[in-house]
Write the structure tokens for this entry.
Amino acid sequence: MKTRAAIVILAALGLSIAVLLYLQGRQVQPEPSAPALSSPADSGPPAPAAPTAPPGQRAITFTDSEQNPISAQEAFGRILAAAEAGEATAMLNVAEFYGNGWGVRQNFTERFRWYQRAGEAGDPRGFFRAALALEAGLGVTADLGAARAALEKAAEAGLAEAHLKLGQDFLAGPEADAARAASHLEAALAGGQPLAANILGLLYLQGAGDLEADSVKARAALERGANLGDAEALKNLAVMHRQGWGGPQNPAEALKFYLAAQMAGWPGDGDIINALKAELGPQAAQEAETGARAWLESRKPLSR
């Protein structure tokens, strides 16, 4: 009952943090990383540059290191040669060529095999993407145990996305462990994953599982996410200031962060913003808007 009551209260206050989905029995899944199409080492044949169209589209142009157009087949051949020579990033790229059918017949089994090879050659993104394939059973028999092992290898190598995924995994199912989740989420946030800040904010605010409720830690986590320019973290930080959670109640700071969130891509809540503007008055509202713009100018917002 305590958890359900907290959900209702937080949702009513507008603290729409992603972990609410977990608390309601749904796990948040990360989006797979975009294909890495980096050039291999200078030795050997030049690698193709990244395609000029998003992955998934068939009308794609490839270029060599001097920006000369080459065919998808030639691009694949060059990448494959670099991969077979031991270049880990090239191995990851070969996997993406197989996954997208660029210059080679689409083959998810080969994609998985090259993900594994990339991980074993030193690129933890290979282990991470292999883990996602093992979870989904795409190109390989689904195996959650093997997926977890691959995720842990990627996390041990310092991959922030793997820490984020493990943090989410430890918030679901019979092995739910909020403390272990928070540890991975802290590592993910340190690695620049702002979603981790939003999840940590609610975990610390509520005191989920064995964690002690700590609104100061909740606000600090959201500040770190906001410093990454994340719209959701900015909005959630505004809620903290508006409610006086983790520090003094500060309507002016709340408005500043609401406006910064809006500028960074949050759809906005006109009623809340207008109420704060009316409470503060025209001059303070203008100062809040100036402060919001200054905040974003000093940081690099993330698209949401």
Remarks:
- The beta strands are 62-63, 69-70.
